[in-house]
């Protein structure tokens, strides 16, 4: 039976991938040891997602392995061998701020863990398609050097700049900038995934995502922008805005649109290809604009507090140019914008978050 291995299988993107590929008839091996709870506390635990997946998908097999443990990863790959047609690697330590607390843990998970997954794939199923969720943080703070203009509710790039129409493309340099330790560990992983494709000829693709979001995000203050924002809007919890007058801009892509991109890559893979991926001009907002949308959806004023200190290496303005991916896979498109996403997050989580208070 065709098999997919998905790391971070209880997380937002991993669990969405589990559902999608189980529905496509794959035998799905999920690797997740709930490190998100260790990173961000009990509220961020994803064990509830695993329980839901086990109940709903008999072809889902969870494995509580640590991707830093090559022996444990090898055992899983050895068991399923060349039946493995697809590896989706989403497991990560995803926070700028957290990485500085434990640099060895951050690099171990993001860089060494990725190397372990690549090498296990090369040894046991070298013909499998390997998809890696990288990040736009590989560009460090280079986007902050763009000619930005302050508007009433957002920062925006100057209309004369080539990036104005579609956003930032893959030609932006990843060098000579501040990445944060998280960004640096993801750069190491990103380049290694490219190299296994270009050097060994493996079918590796990497997605440099902006804000990846959706209703099943186990939101925490340090990671999960829209979901955490809506959680605060529903519960009345204080939401802290970190710098840039709350006008920093992010594009946001729904997890379903992202997994559909994975599906297109799987069907026609390339070797060592990197893609910027996000909501692009179709789905983006500033923090101020997102707060207004949350208040509109919930019908209540949010409790916010502003601090002048921005997060280290944070982007002032990021919109992904997805033109390269669309040119390679013209059948793919975005379907949900920011308001769609926030409404879905609200409807899916409202009762549960109120009960948790």
The N- and C-terminal alpha carbons lie at a distance of: 44 Å
- The helicity comes to 40-55%
Shape annotation: globular
Q: Give the class-level CATH name.
A: Alpha Beta
Largest sheet: 7 strands, parallel
Q: Report the mean per-residue pLDDT as an integer.
A: 94
Fraction in beta strands: 15-25%
Number of strands: 15
Output the helix-strand order: EHEHHEHEHHEEEHHEEHEEHEEHEEHH
Number of domains: 1
Alpha plus pi helix count: 13
The residue ranges in which pLDDT falls below 50 over 5 or more consecutive positions are: none
Oligomeric nature of the chains: single chain
Q: Which fold does the CATH topology refer to?
A: Rossmann fold
Describe this structure in words.
With about 350 residues, the protein is α/β, with parallel strands linked by helices. It has one domain (about 5-355): NAD(P)-binding Rossmann-like Domain (Rossmann fold). The chain has helices spanning about 10-25, 35-40, 45-55, 70-80, 95-100, 105-125, 165, 180-200, 225-235, 255-265, 285-300, 325-330, 340-355, and strands at about 5, 25-30, 60-65, 85-90, 130-135, 150, 155, 205-210, 210-215, 240, 250-255, 275, 285, 305, 315-320. α6 runs parallel beside α8 and α9 (about 225-235) crosses α11 (about 285-300). About 50% of the residues are buried.
Summary, kept brief:
With 357 residues, this protein is an alpha/beta fold. The chain has helices spanning 12-23, 35-40, 47-56, 70-80, 96-101, 103-124, 163-166, 180-200, 225-235, 255-267, 287-298, 323-328, 338-356, and strands at 3-7, 27-31, 60-63, 84-89, 129-135, 148-150, 155-157, 203-209, 211-213, 239-242, 249-254, 273-277, 284-286, 304-307, 317-318. Helix content is 43%, strand content 19%.
